[in-house]
Every structure is written in structure tokens, then in C-alpha cells.
Amino acid sequence: MSQLEVKDLHVTYGSGTRAVPAVRGVDLSLAAGQKLGVAGESGCGKSTLALALLRLLPSSAKLTGEILLDGEDVLTMKWGRLRAVRWAGASIVFQGAMHSLNAVHRVGDQIAEPILLHRGSTPAEAKRRVGELLQHVGLPAARADAYPHELSGGQRQRVMIAMALACDPRLIVADEPTTALDVMIQAQILRLIEQLVAEQDISLLMISHDLGVLADTCDRLAVMYAGRVVEEGPARAVYDRA
Ligand code: ADP
Ligand code: ADP
């Protein structure tokens, strides 16, 4: 059984004459431990797909189809079950850590939140776990006390990755994880993601407009165009055809 299977997914924002069909019949599958890249130009529906996987889309978005995570359909899951699946079943690393992190809270407290909420840890356990996670992503544990603006872009992205790892997810969805970063830092963050998913046997769905980045990191590639997957296959083969 695939870890993730997306079947005939449609996502439309709004309705009537102003309806925007963002995803128009996508099928994808990801086996446990695999790394799948989803490429495509801006506006083709990649972020919508990523957010749909955990039902994190705004309520104006209408979804049909199936999103099976370990065989369970995310789209019909009860709310309580969905909350358990978020973070532990699959976790998302978003683009632009500055917008995704809360500017007025220390980063350690932000990483601790899903741990406290979803793992039922005590504050002391959560604090220890935050320190471990920060070290895991190459930051000193003491950086837990920093506010997002006190960190560099690369460090903030490391914090986002630490947060995504907080509840030991089996799948990480990384949406343009390096886009806002300098080229040198991009390579470091990609290596970090590769190393972490390999060490902890986490599956990866990575989204990027940059086919080259995906071809280096992923086993398989899907290319989207206007809401559809127009090409899918082994990473090198898809890259060479493009
Ligand atoms: P990508 O990640 O590939 O750049 P998106 O999934 O962000 O693509 O966008 C796909 C389409 O959906 C685009 O036409 C975009 O303008 C539209 N869209 C994205 N988010 C929203 C939203 N919240 N409300 C309405 N339309 C949206
Ligand atoms: P709450 O736990 O406060 O009810 P949600 O579960 O709706 O909130 O999630 C709050 C925010 O946390 C979401 O809008 C999203 O940005 C982020 N989030 C939720 N689940 C995940 C996840 N698995 N990975 C990364 N971010 C997530």
C-alpha cells in the first residue's frame, strides 16, 4: 500500500462565475521512504495541492477526490482524527519561514506548541525535546530563546524544519523550502532535509518551481501544468525529457 495516494483530486477556490479551478484531477502516489518532487511554474496549483493534503486550505476551497494517507481518506476524516494525523502523520515545511513563524513568540515556544498539543508532553519534556530538535537541525539548543527576527533566513528555515519534525512525522511535505534563501544556504538546507529524511526514514514530498533542485533530491518527479500532472516518472528521466 502506498503511504500517500491522491486520486482524482480537484480543488476549486470560490464558486459561480468567480470560481478558480486550481487543481484539476491530480493522481499521485508515494511509497513509504520515497522522495517525490512536484514541479511546475508559478500558479499551476502546487501549494494548493500541498495544503490540501492536510486540509489546511481556506474554507472557500472546495475539494473532491481522495487523499489517502496510509489508506485513510484525509478528506472525509473526522476533525479529531485529522488533528492527530496533522504533525504526526504528515507535516509541512512552508515557504518563507518569516511569514509562517509568529514574530512575537520565541522560536522554542513555537516548536514546543505541537509537542505539547499533540504528544501530551509536560512543559519540561517539551523543552528538552525542543533542544534536541534544534541540535538536530544544526542550531545550538540555546537558540530556542531567540525571536524569529534575531535569526538569519537559513536559521529560520532550520527552525521550521525542527517544528515539522516535532511529532515524528512519517511524511514531510516541503513547499518551496529553499526559495527565499541565498544560493549557498539553499544547498545547505536541501542537504539537511535529505539527511534527516534518510536518517529517520521519513517520506518526502517536495514542491519547487526548480526542476533541477528536485531532480537532485528526489527519486521521482511529477510535473504540473494548469492544475494537472502532465508528466511523472523517475527523477532523472523526467529531468532529461524537460
Ligand atoms: P503554485 O503553488 O503552483 O504557485 P497555487 O496553488 O498557489 O500555485 O495557485 C493555483 C491557482 O489558485 C492560482 O491561479 C492562484 O491564483 C489560485 N489561488 C491560490 N490560492 C488561492 C486562494 N486562497 N483563493 C483564490 N485563489 C487562489
Ligand atoms: P489549532 O491546533 O490551533 O487548532 P490547526 O491544527 O488548524 O490549529 O493548525 C494551525 C496552523 O498550524 C495551521 O494554519 C498551519 O499553518 C499549521 N499546521 C497545522 N498542521 C500542520 C502540519 N502538519 N505541519 C505544519 N504546519 C501545520
Short key terms for the protein model shown above:
242 residues; nucleotide-binding; alpha/beta; single chain; 9 helices; globular; 6-stranded mixed β-sheet; 4-stranded antiparallel β-sheet; binds adenosine-5'-diphosphate; transport
Polypeptide structure, described:
With 242 residues, the protein is an alpha/beta fold. Helices cover 38% and strands 27% of the residues. The strands form 2 sheets. Strands 6-7-8-3-9-10 form a 6-stranded mixed beta sheet, with helices on both faces. It has a 4-stranded antiparallel beta sheet with strand order 2-1-4-5, covered by helices on one side. Strand 1 (4-13) and strand 2 (20-30) form a beta hairpin. Helix 5 (123-136) packs across helix 6, helix 6 packs parallel to helix 7 and helix 8 (211-217) packs antiparallel against helix 9. The longest helix has 18 residues, at 183-200. The chain starts with a strand and ends with a helix. The site of one adenosine-5'-diphosphate (ADP) has 12 residues, from strand 2 and helix 1.
